[in-house]
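Hi everyone, sorry if this is the wrong subforum. Our group has a chain we'd like a structural model of before ordering constructs, and none of us has done structure prediction before. Sequence below.
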Amino acid sequence: MGSDRRTFLLQMGAACGAVGISAALAGCSTVRYVPATEENKRLAVKKADLLDEKAVMVKGAHSKVPVYLKKTTEGDYLALLMLCSHKQCQVKPSGNFFVCPCHGSEFSPTGKVLKPPAAQDLRSYKVTEDSDHLYVHLN
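Answer:
Right subforum, don't worry. Here is the predicted structure as C-alpha cells:
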C-alpha cells in the first residue's frame, strides 16, 4: 500500500509539474529579434525586416540590452529599453507585460511600473521613420 501511494503521489506530482510548466510556457511570449545598425546615436531598423509583426526586439552591435519596438494601435511606434530601473537587470516580455527576473518588478506594455521594487518606468525612446527604415533615437 505504501509503495502504491508513493507511486501515485510521484505520478501526480509529475503531472502537476507538467501542467504548471506548460501553463508557464503558454504565458511566455516570444518576441523575434531583428537586426539593427547603429548610426549617429540611433538604431536603424529596416521596415522590411519587421514583416507583419507588431513587436520586435532590436539590438545594436554595441548594445548590451535590447530595445522593444512596437507598433501602436494609433500607427506610431513605441521603443522601450529592456532594462529594469531597480537593479539594471534585463526585463523580459511575459504575456501582455514585462517582468524583471531579478526581483519581480512588473511593467505595463507601455513601460509603466505595475509592481515594485522598481520605482521608475522603463526608459522610452523617440522613434522616427522614413520610407525604408525606423530609427530609434538613443539619446
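For your construct planning: Residues 13-28 have pLDDT under 50 and may be disordered. Residues 2-27 form the longest helix (26 residues).
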